[in-house]
Design brief:
The complex is a heterodimer. Chain A is mainly α. Chain A has 4 helices and 2 strands, in the order H-H-E-E-H-H. Chain B is of the alpha+beta class. The chains are: A mainly alpha, B alpha+beta.
């Protein structure tokens, strides 16, 4: 080890970059850095997207699960007729689809807006 | 019973399908074209194609028949089939498209870097598609039998040969247009007869939809009994009988006294107009209360019916995302956003379609009690137009419905056969166009032969099982693979094995006749209610126990799944579909988003 030259000295003029020094928005490259900062960016994107998904799934699942449960708790429910048609026919034969389609439409808009914001955040750099 | 109009309608559907396919062949030159139609399909066309591929024999014939037979609770199948696309939309569509995997085996290997997992996924693809293909063939047999008479296996062979030749020569570019065309054909073929029947049928007042007895024959009705049957008549009826009744051979007029009578298999009874329908012991017409209940009639206790209903919902809602032939189509979207829009359109198209099976179920209950008597409620959609109006209108509507039904089998079978041939040629053979064609031919022949032997099993039951297996295997793999960074290949493999094994075992036990009442009937008949949680739990627990099996660059893989295309770094290494390259999986040819992390930490850019 002693035969080696002493380590070359070098003056660094720029201030070292640290995550805390960031004054501007994150850029695309940051996402690919395997440090805590890149992971945090990814996590926040995934959390936001999962949040929108859950905001659709929870009402949709409640909608599907509720009617069978009510029918067991209140057996007379299935006997109701609206405009001469059984309630079950109105719900399962068509009425349940518009809310599901609207939830889907709402999700597409929310998800696209969320991604737009994320893209803008990265490109502001 | 041969009807030229019906034969002509089926022939037209087949010829139009063939023409569109052949026009597609000119464009389909490469394996990549064959597999994913070169990613140039606009959202609405793609949504029509997905719906066309998805709406199978179960949707076109099975749901209406089952809802007529057992009650409106069977419409949960339709609701679940459609609602599955909402889950697919919010949890799977965009990430899967962004990841760039063509198939579930591609996804499994690309995300978790395990060739073993890939092979397991390929096996499950073959299992699910096989279970799903048999009822399509059976549906074709039923349709040709109702239209033309003769044995059921003729339709099985006709469909098997058509689809096999179509796939082996056409590929998927053609099929995209074919499937889109077939969605519109199918909804037209149900909507026009349904609207006509509702408007022009002199059915009983709407208020009596649910009421059970007395159901009477509006017109002279001839019923064939395929199996031996016990009939109970409320008062003496004068009928015409050919065959054995109460142990004596008859051929001519016969008066059935009030009471119960035995009818031998193969007998034909003709009831004059105005007589009330007899009660059939094996297939009693459900009472109004039973029929309008929103629960499935499995087991006796309310808690059993609730569990069975939830089991169906779980299987159909979560199974939709695990159907291999549907997921391939998502790669034909331009990007993740297009995949979302396509899925939302699919939800809309399915919601519109599933109104009509309900209409047919109600009309069948009101107008065709003979189907309860003969046990052929599965054919209500095919039979009703002819029962409702004699003459040219009835014939034309009957032909239209038969053509739509045939379109349903053609399109779904094509998609399934492509997936199976793709899986085999890609994972077992050398991945070229030639091996894809050979695999399609071999599987087509094998499945057609199996289809002839599986004629005895009901359409809905087989499709239900395919969904239950998909929900217990690919659904947890996709959801956890996309949203949970700690999934390992060992965990995924364990979940696939336990979930797939348990649901398949339940299917086999049910086929063998184990568990006819109570909890065993619910848990074996609708296994998804426990096999889906089992599969999820296994994947999570095993993954947490094997952190060393994590792939090296989980963050990069999650970025590939979730990062919008617009913010991905441009890279010369982006894999284009080259003419001689088979489908690319991210694991084999690293796409830029997967390969990016190089160099050290944040200060490596000197």
């Amino acid at each position: 080890m002693t035969t080696h030259e002493p380590p070359r000295r070098q003056v660094i003029q720029a201030a070292p970059r640290r995550p805390s020094d960031r004054s501007v928005s994150p850029g695309t490259d940051d996402l690919y850095q395997p440090d805590a900062y890149g992971r945090e960016l990814l996590s926040s994107l995934m959390r936001a997207q999962a949040g929108v998904s859950l905001a659709v799934l929870v009402p949709a699942i409640s909608l599907l699960a509720l009617y069978p449960l009510l029918a067991v708790l209140l057996p007379s429910l299935a006997g109701y007729e609206v405009l001469g048609l059984p309630l079950t026919l109105l719900i399962l034969g068509g009425g349940i689809y518009p809310p599901l389609v609207l939830l889907g439409y709402w999700y597409v808009r929310r998800a696209e807006r969320l991604e737009q914001r994320f893209v803008e955040l990265l490109k502001e750099q | 019973m041969t009807e030229p109009a019906t034969i002509a309608a089926i022939a037209v559907v087949t010829v139009v399908t063939a023409v569109i396919s052949v026009r597609g062949v000119r464009i389909a030159r490469t394996p990549a074209d064959f597999m994913v139609a070169a990613r140039q399909v606009p959202s609405f066309l793609n949504a029509s194609a997905i719906s066309g591929e998805y709406l199978s024999a179960a949707s076109f014939l099975g749901i209406a028949g089952l809802a007529m037979l057992e009650g409106l609770g069977a419409l949960w199948y339709a609701v679940g089939y459609a609602a599955g696309y909402l889950v697919l939309l919010v949890a799977v569509a965009a990430p899967l498209r962004r990841f760039g995997a063509y198939t579930i085996p591609d996804f499994a290997e690309g995300r978790l870097e395990s060739p073993v997992l890939r092979r397991a996924a390929t096996g499950i693809v073959l299992l699910i598609c096989g279970f799903y293909l048999l009822p399509q063939l059976k549906g074709a047999g039923l349709t040709l039998q109702v239209a033309l008479g003769g044995p059921e296996w003729i339709g099985v062979i006709v469909l098997g040969v058509l689809v096999t030749l179509g796939i082996a020569s056409g590929g998927m570019k053609g099929i995209t247009f074919v499937q889109a065309f077939q969605y519109w054909l199918k909804i037209t073929a149900l909507a026009i007869p349904a609207i006509f029947l509702v408007m022009f049928l002199h059915h009983p007042p709407i208020g009596s939809i649910g009421s059970a007895a007395p159901h009477s024959f509006d017109q002279r009705t001839t019923i064939e009994f395929p199996a031996s049957e016990q009939l109970t008549v409320g008062g003496s009826v004068r009928i015409t009988a050919v065959g054995q009744v109460d142990g004596r051979t008859r051929d001519g007029a016969l008066t059935l006294a009030k009471g119960t009578h035995d009818v031998a298999p193969g007998s034909t009874l003709t009831f004059p107009a105005g007589t009330s329908a007899p009660r059939v012991e094996s297939n009693p017409i459900p009472s109004e209360k039973e029929w309008t209940s929103p629960l499935l009639h499995l087991g006796g206790q309310p808690i059993h019916t609730l569990a069975a209903t939830y089991g169906i919902l779980l299987a159909t809602v979560l199974g939709a995302m695990g159907l291999p032939h549907i997921l391939v189509r998502f790669y034909t979207n331009r990007d993740g956003q297009a995949a979302r829009r396509t899925t939302a359109f699919v939800l809309l198209l399915l919601g519109c379609f599933y109104i009509f099976p309900a209409v047919f179920a109600v009309l069948g209950r009101l107008e065709a009690p003979g189907l309860y008597v003969s046990g052929q409620t599965d054919s209500v959609v095919l039979v009703l137009p002819k029962l409702a109006s004699a003459g040219i209108v009835g014939t034309a509507l009957g032909a239209l419905v038969a053509a739509g039904a045939f379109a349903a089998f053609l399109s779904t079978s094509s998609g399934l056969l492509i997936s199976m041939a793709g899986a085999i040629s890609h994972d077992i053979m050398d991945r070229g166009v030639r091996s894809f064609r050979v695999a399609a031919l071999v599987i087509g022949v094998v499945m057609t032969i199996l289809g002839v032997f599986a004629l005895g099993i009901s359409i809905n039951v087989l499709v239900g099982w395919a969904f239950a297996i998909a929900a217990s295997t690919f659904c947890p793999l996709l959801l956890l693979g996309i949203w949970w960074r700690r999934l390992t290949w060992i965990g995924a493999l364990g979940g696939l094995a336990l979930g797939g094994g348990a649901s398949s075992l339940a299917v086999i036990l049910t086929m063998a006749g184990v568990g006819k009442t109570g909890w065993p009937a619910v848990l074996l008949g609708e296994p998804a209610i426990w096999t889906v949680p089992l599969s999820f739990t296994t994947m999570v627990v095993l993954s947490l126990a094997t952190p060393r099996a994590l792939p090296n660059d989980v963050v990069a893989k999650l970025l590939a799944l979730h990062l919008p295309e617009r913010v991905r770094p441009p890279s010369p290494r982006r894999p284009e579909l080259s003419p001689l390259l088979p489908p690319i999986s991210p694991a084999r040819v690293p796409s830029p988003q997967v390969a990016v992390p190089r160099g050290g930490g944040i200060d490596s850019d000197t």
